[in-house]
Amino acid sequence: MSNVGIVIVSHSPLVAEGTADMVRQMVGDEVPLAWCGGNGHGGLGTSVEAIMGAIEKAWSEAGVAILVDLGGAETNSEMAVEMIGEPRSRRIVVCNAPIVEGAVMAATESSGGASLKEVVATAHELSPS
Amino acid sequence: MAAPDFSQLIAATADTIAAHADELTALDQAIGDGDHGLNMKRGFDAVRAEKAAIAAKPLPDALKAIGTKLVMTVGGASGPLFGTLFMALGKELSGTPDRAALTAALGKAIEAVSARGKSQPGQKTMLDVLQPVYEALAQGKTAGAIADAADRAAEATVQMKALRGRASFLGERSIGHMDAGARSTALLVRAVAEAIEGS
Fold it and tell me: If DSSP codes are grouped into helix, strand and coil, which group holds residue B46?
């Protein structure tokens, strides 16, 4: 059984990479992990193409949980999931959770072999709403 | 309404975005992050570069190709929003659509954009232009009247308070500036309307 993949999407490549570093150090290497950040033109932002690439990189048959920072990252991640298309899109979830805590908690859950649903639920518990 | 050549429509939309790129950027600088004109120009230039190949496709595939290209090249939040508009139209339209088919397809596309942006008309976005355009289309207005309605609708976003997107961080201070996405939508509507009217 493969572990759920974790994708980190920030407007800033530094935030995304730093979050990924924290996940690696705190959780380890068994969880498929990828990050992306920046608009693809050297500025802050997110790119659908880069997000699709990160999903491919972290792809797992168990599914992929995406952690995002601000609004545009969420919109672009949802677009990327839609463009990856069915049937895989049904196993990709954009989490409603703070990016750093969400990524670490989701990866921790995933490393223990939890299902996509359990991984996402753990991340969502961090959100007040 | 005769159907204009599709590559002509692509050229007309790319031309108007390029001609107004500085204006769109200035609008976005006032209440956003100031990249809207450049982003939109990059996207529509990329669509124009593949004009012949796109126009040779059946209508649903052509619209989907435009949407995909915009998603991949515009960037920011506008890429997925404008991309979704064209991709949703591609899902609904085929052959040579009449006004009823166009109206129904635009209605569905507005729903798709609204879902993508988690936004509704009245929040100072492109939806505030699309909705009146849909209504004018449904009411049987001429192409010119529809373009005028789009311009008025973009103008009306000046008085609105932004509730979605980066401009919403400014709250009350977003009032007094036209929404850049609403303006680019009105430009696209006018370009398409004039191409249809002139054909």
Answer: helix
For the stretch B21-56, pLDDT in tens is 999 999 988 888 788 999 999 999 999 999 999 999
**Residue B121 near chain A (CB below 8 Å):** no
Q: Which CA distances in Å does B72 have to A95, B29, B35, B76?
A: 22, 23, 16, 10
**Which of A41, A43, A79 is closest, CB to CB, to B80?**
A79
> Which helix (H) or strand (E) is A65 found in, with range?
strand A64-68
Q: How many CB pairs under 8 A join A and B?
A: 39
Contact residues on chain A for B114, CB-CB shorter than 8 A: none
Rounded Cα gap, residues B83 and B68, in angstroms: 6
DSSP state of A34: E
pTM of the model: 0.87
On whether residue A97 sits in a domain, the answer given is yes
Question: Which two three-digit tokens encode residue B187?
Answer: 């430009």
> Which residues in A42-80 are b (16+ Cβ under 10 Å) and which e?
eebbbbbbbbbebbeebbbebbbbbbbbbbbbbbbbbbb
Give chain B positions within 8 Å (CB) of A41: 75
Domain assignment present for A111: yes
Q: Is residue A129 part of a domain?
A: no
**How many structural domains comprise chain A?**
1
pLDDT tens figures, B99-120: 999 999 999 999 999 999 999 9
Range of the domain at A43: 5-124
Nearest to B77 among A40, A43, A72 (CB): A72
| Cβ distance of B35 and A43 shorter than 8 Å | yes
A residues 29-68 near B, CB within 8 Å?
A: 39-41, 43, 45, 47-49
